[in-house]
């Protein structure tokens, strides 16, 4: 475990930055390239540990994936180009790799075993295993298939109509990937809108999909064609700089080329509702995913309630939103966010514990937290607990701490943003 002394000793954050590529879209670009026929070029791919795990798994599945300068090139040979792997598929820390890949493997006529790190071993897989079994996949694993290691024998799949018990883009995407290989039409019904990158990518790779309100349907036996994917900057990474600019004095940060898909922009809605000084400019020439520039300046913030359908639109930003709320006047209440308990860590406990360590006033609840602002943060020793988003949030927290902060396990940030601390340092004045 590595320890970082965060003693930036700076008072403002200023400048322009392009954050790395979107993690969700980078995973999908590799997977869709792998199951399509022909060449796929992925530009602005995120070279973070999670997306590298996806590349490594699909290479083991026999797909030719190469890096040319900063681009990834995939030579797909369609569904049948995937072959039985000779060794286990290691997803590392990545929930997205695990759940989406299971949807692909479910219909492939071979055996494979999926493993991951200690965090993945605690994350529930029944949410995909149970519906995949209904479609005909043969899956075994620890605790009846709920946890890795998971063994899967792919089989011919039958389509289903499935109402998601939780609003999860990973479950939806897994079942759409299985549905593309099934006989007949598969329909997924969402309780609330979740990120729709898979739906967009099916269309981008020449497939057919129908979307009516909260019902998404795909026909089976679809063959996709390789293409070029321009990955926008990750709004989930941009969020750390947005919050840093809002809570530090004399600050202004301009974030260029950020993905602004409306299923991901809950953080912007929250900043606006809290009274932040923020402006958005859409790029006119963006491709199939909306992209734009976000500018955030020092802000006077007030506490709000964050709940309901907004939650899936900012689920990964809740740790940094909790820090934001510590600097708002009044109380912020986060509700309906029980999904936070099954991320890389239990993020309700992790946020409450680590930020309280620095002097924040946060009460964890069953489905979220109550943050009482505005608090002055002091220094102390905290830990990412092995969770990249907790590590980056604590890095931003250290910027407004009165004394120095020691961050344990800081290298967890490699999962989604390997150069996070260097990029942050470069903007500090
Ligand atoms: O589909 C995706 O790329 C993701 C979906 C979300 O997970 P859930 O589907 O479990 O909510 C999110 O938390 C994760 O970081 C990425
Ligand atoms: C939850 C996350 O990712 P995953 O589910 O892919 O591990 C995340 O990036 O915050």
Structural notes for this entry:
The protein is α/β, with parallel strands linked by helices. It folds into two domains: 3-21 and 233-427, Alpha-beta prism (UDP-n-acetylglucosamine1-carboxyvinyl-transferase, Chain), CATH 3.65.10.10; 23-230, UDP-n-acetylglucosamine1-carboxyvinyl-transferase, Chain (Alpha-beta prism). It has helices at residues 23-35, 49-60, 95-105, 126-135, 142-145, 169-179, 197-204, 235-247, 266-273, 318-326, 347-357, 388-398, 420-427, and strands spanning 3-6, 14-17, 37-43, 64-68, 71-77, 89-90, 111-115, 138-141, 147-153, 161-163, 185-189, 210-212, 215-219, 228-230, 252-259, 277-282, 291-297, 305-306, 330-334, 361-365, 368-373, 380-383, 405-408. Strands 2-15-17-16 form a four-stranded mixed sheet. The protein has a four-stranded mixed sheet with strand order 4-5-3-14, with helices on one face. The longest helix has 13 residues, at 23-35. The mean pLDDT is 97. The protein binds shikimate-3-phosphate (S3P) and phosphoenolpyruvate. Phosphoenolpyruvate binds at residues 23, 50, 94-96, 316, 343-344, 389, 416. Keywords: Amino-acid biosynthesis, Aromatic amino acid biosynthesis, Cytoplasm, Transferase. It catalyses: 3-phosphoshikimate + phosphoenolpyruvate = 5-O-(1-carboxyvinyl)-3-phosphoshikimate + phosphate.
Looking at the structure, the CATH topology of the largest domain is UDP-n-acetylglucosamine1-carboxyvinyl-transferase, Chain
Instruction: Tell me the overall shape.
Output: globular
Count of the separate structural domains: 2
How much of the sequence lies in strands comes to 25-35%
Query: What is the CATH domain class of the largest domain?
Result: Alpha Beta
Ligands and ions found: shikimate-3-phosphate, phosphoenolpyruvate
N- and C-termini, Cα separation: 29 Å
- Secondary structure class reads alpha/beta
Helix content: 25-40%
Mean pLDDT: 97
Q: What is the CATH H-level superfamily of the largest domain?
A: Enolpyruvate transferase domain
